[in-house]
Each structure stands twice: as C-alpha cells, then as structure tokens.
Write a structure and sequence with these properties.
17-stranded antiparallel sheet, 2 helices, 55% strand, mainly beta, 6% helix, 274 residues
C-alpha cells in the first residue's frame, strides 16, 4: 500500500489505534473522559447499529489520583482482551509522557510505545514510535502556534522517508480547526473540520448545532460527500455528579410528507467507580 494512502487511513480512523495525526496531537492532553468528579474506573459499553445488526464494544478505563487516564483496555464480544493502552503521566504538568499500545488479534501479539516530546512551554512538538524491540519505526514532527496548538505535522518512517503532511488552520471564534492532508508535492488531498476543545461551547450563526444545559451536543448535521446532510439528535442521562451515564444518538430522516423518522444509531453507556 502506498505510504500516502496509509496516512489518509490513519487520519480517518480513531485514536484507538497508535496513529499520529493532528487530531490525536491536539486532544492528547485534553480530559474528555468525564466532566465533573474524577473517577477511579469507567466501564464503557458502546453499541453501534447498522444494516447487519449491532456491534457492542466493552472498554475499561482506569485513572490515576490526578484524574488522568492510566490504562485503557478493550475487549472482544466473547470477553477476551483485544487491546490495552498504558500511559505514563506527568501529573504536575498534566501531560502524557509515553503510551504503550498492545494488541491481541485473533492470531499473534503486537506491542509498540510512543514517546512524546515537549518544548519548554510543554507544547507537544514530536512523537517517536518504537516497536517491542526498541527500534524506531515512525517519527512525527510537530510545529505549534503561540497557543501550543499543532499547525503542521509531518510523519516519517524508520528511514526518514516522509509519509506526507497535515496542516491546520484555527477558527478560534468558532472553536473549530480545519485540518488538511498535504501530499509530498504540496497538493491538498482532503480537508475536514473538527472542534478544538470539546468542553467549550461556541454558538456561531450558521452552525447547525444545539446544546443542552450541561453543555452536551443535542443535535447536529453532517455534510455528506454528495452534498446532502444527515441530521443527528442526541439524548443524555447523568449521574448525581453530572457525569454522563447514557448517551443515545439517533439518525433523523425527514420523509416526503414532512414526518420525521428517528433511527437509533449509537448508544454509549458508562459506569463510574469513584
């Protein structure tokens, strides 16, 4: 597979993998697992609905005394361990120092460790990925702006050959950032817009987003490649501390007669141990 194609895939898949991209760099040290009281453990059951049925993923997340994520374990539906991410943290500076990623596929075992590099301002400026034998197989260089947000990210293989590049343009008034994938010859291959901080709410004219009193997104629209939009609506339940224990996401379809049809798309359940 072409290395540039690999980079595009890495950008599109979730932080569950060991990939390095602007999304993962931007949100590496943001606390997104809970909103109020710090938990010791969170057990997650995430259900995804599709045409072929449903998929249920179980995750168990353990936190240190400072409330920083320490271990994340993911399981197959039969209860077997699928993957484990283990972090070492600087709880004073509230930054992650390393992340060890272990994976147990149906056959075999894989382990690799990411070492995060920071400047004197504690801005993330690079990541070095090593395999289980301590060999470097990927290096990521990051250029940050004056706020410490990544504006350029370049990935290289073990021989110093570039995979490609990502650049970011920040729209701070909207709490959004536009991320573009750049080929080695400087062409923009694709772009996407994400939030800078998921705990910050910004109401901006023209945005098809609504929020509840807890600051959680309740409705939003996703633009499809064919120019159409898909509308989603969300419902939440909270525990006595204000942390979300149940999140339902619906896909909304408006029929020709004007009636709205809501189909359950995803359900995220969390059980907290404090």
């Amino acid at each position: 597979m072409h290395k540039l194609t690999i980079l595009i895939i890495l950008v599109l898949i979730s932080e569950y993998t060991s990939s390095q991209n602007i999304f993962s760099a931007l949100h590496l040290n943001q606390d997104r697992e809970y909103k109020t009281k710090k938990p010791k453990i969170i057990v997650e059951l995430n259900t995804f609905y599709n045409a072929s049925g449903q998929q249920v993923d179980k995750n168990i997340k353990t936190f240190d005394k400072a409330g920083m994520l320490l271990v994340e374990e993911r399981y197959y539906k039969n209860g077997a361990l699928k993957a484990r991410l283990t972090y070492t943290n600087d709880t004073t500076k509230r930054i992650k120092l390393t992340r060890t990623f272990e994976k147990w596929p149906p056959v075999g075992y894989m382990k690799e460790t990411a070492f995060y590099r920071y400047d004197i301002n504690n801005f993330l400026i690079g990541v070095v990925d090593k395999d289980s034998n301590g060999n470097i197989f990927r290096q990521t260089n990051i250029i940050c702006n004056e706020r410490g947000h990544p504006i350029e990210l370049s990935v290289f293989d073990e021989n110093g050959n570039p995979f490609g590049k990502e650049i970011a343009t920040y729209l701070y008034a909207k709490n959004k950032v536009v991320i573009s994938i750049i080929s080695n010859d400087g062409k923009i291959l694709t772009s996407d817009t994400i939030k800078i901080n998921y705990k910050t709410i910004v109401f901006y004219p023209g945005d098809n987003e609504t929020y509840n009193s807890n600051g959680d997104l309740t409705s939003w629209a996703r633009r499809n490649p064919n120019g159409t939009e898909t509308v989603f609506e969300e419902e939440y339940l909270y525990d006595s501390f204000g942390n979300c224990v149940d999140q339902k996401i619906y896909r909304v379809t408006v029929k020709r007669n004007g009636k709205r049809k809501k189909d359950l798309d995803r359900v995220f359940k969390k059980e907290y141990t404090y």
